[in-house]
Amino acid sequence: MGIEVRKITEADRDWVLQSVREAWGSTTLVSRGSVYQTEDLDAFVAVDFGERVGLLVHRCDATGLEVIVLQSFVERRGVGSKLLERAVEQARQDHRPTSFASRSR
Length: 105
Hints:
Distance between the termini: 36 Å
Number of domains: 1
CATH topology: Aminopeptidase
Order of helices and strands: EHEEEEEH
Helix content: 25-40%
CATH superfamily: Gcn5-related N-acetyltransferase (GNAT)
Shape: globular
Number of helices: 2
Radius of gyration: 13 Å
Low-confidence stretches: none
């Protein structure tokens, strides 16, 4: 079946909060000078054979899609790419801008 990406459900919420807290030390997140509470943001989860293997926490409004957290718990499986693709797909369905800037070293 492969990796499935879906919107989080209430059953996923505690896991998302715990995962963000473990990775970032808090569920309060700062991005682009704004402060967010993880529980107030939308998220997607990647699932492989019933096991959660990644998450993407984001906000999406008239200014566009902003990814706040992207975490993959397995390597070389395309989890991060699949999560990003799903978030962009949702933003486009909602008629929101989806341009991204990246910085390389």
